[in-house]
Design goal:
Layout: H1 3-8, H2 12-17, H3 20-42, H4 46-50, H5 55-60, H6 80-116, H7 118-131, H8 136-147, H9 151-177, H10 181-188, H11 193-235, H12 243-251, H13 259-286, H14 288-297
Length: 298
């Protein structure tokens, strides 16, 4: 067997690891994840990073980038570098919670709908069609009025609008799987349908949906930041260190204190770029047609 053929037979993750774009994207995400984990330690002014306006910040006022404050200070004198470092925890945590929550709900309901059929299929498909067109910003605005603004509101609004996409993918794959021999044999042996769904359908359905969630990581991050930009910067501009909130709050001072929006926006773009590199590599290596098209182009 040739080496090229052996490589094509390897697992998707191993093939991705051979790609330079995957390594670069993974390195970016890992570095930013470490920064987020260590931000309370590495931030020069952790209290200001969390949103506290200290007496030193009041006396300092807005300052441009300098040796003492590499990213400058904001309109009330807080260190922007500390805000960006602390904000990485909030932005990445919200992104992770949205993806995990959407995956859990979407895969479970989609797999059950496709396998069980009947009333369960009709009912779950009704809710999928109901939640698919919901705009996240409108849902976030409504939840902000009902339960108040905050990180939980942003996460809940995005889970409510993203789970249906994953449920649709899981539903399509589970309908294909329910007619295969290994499922029919399990049912003939007397296993309960719920057991077959959880032990045979769900694991096989989860793989393509997880791949799709990797592709969606950058989009989820930008959605989180967009909602915080539009809503969070208005209702809680001082105590929320999320990148989107910081960009929205600094946007009103863009002509005078440009650094307030520039540096959190730079970290946001860099993180999204890392997710995009990982997602593109996983997408191409998990799809033979995309790999062939890539080789024809280049």
């Amino acid at each position: 067997m040739s080496y090229a053929r052996a490589v094509r037979g390897r697992p998707t993750l191993w093939r991705c690891w051979r790609r330079r774009d995957f390594k670069v994207g993974l390195m970016i995400v890992i570095v930013l994840a470490l920064i987020a984990a260590l931000s309370p330690v590495v931030a020069p002014y952790p209290e200001e990073g969390e949103g506290l306006v200290t007496e030193a910040a009041k006396q300092r006022g807005p300052l441009p980038p300098s040796a003492g404050h590499p990213f400058g200070t904001d309109a009330v004198g807080r260190d922007v570098l500390s805000r960006v470092l602390i904000g990485s925890r909030y932005s990445l945590l919200q992104t992770a919670l949205v993806i995990l929550g959407s995956l859990t709900v979407g895969v479970l309901l989609g797999a059950l709908a496709g396998y069980l059929g009947g009333i369960a299929e009709a009912l779950i498909n009704y809710f999928i069609e109901l939640f698919l067109p919901l705009p996240p910003v409108v849902v976030a605005a409504a939840l902000s009025v009902l339960i108040g603004p905050g990180m939980s509101t942003v996460v809940l609004s995005l889970v409510l609008t993203w789970w249906a996409w994953y449920a649709r993918i899981a539903y399509v794959h589970s309908r294909q799987l329910r007619d295969l021999d290994f499922v029919k044999v399990s049912e003939a042996l007397g296993f309960r349908r719920i057991y077959v769904a959880l032990h045979h359908i769900l694991p096989n359905v989860a793989s393509p949906v997880v791949v799709q969630s990797v592709l969606d990581s950058a989009s989820v991050l930008l959605e989180v930041s967009s909602i915080n930009f539009l809503i969070g910067s208005v209702v809680a501009p001082f105590d929320a260190p999320d990148w989107g909130t910081m960009v929205g709050y600094g946007f009103r001072y863009i002509t005078t204190y440009w650094w307030m929006s520039f540096f959190p926006g730079l970290f946001l773009v860099l993180t999204a770029f890392g997710f995009i590199l990982i997602g593109d590599a996983v997408s191409e290596e998990s799809s033979p047609s995309l790999r062939r098209r890539w080789r024809l182009w280049f």
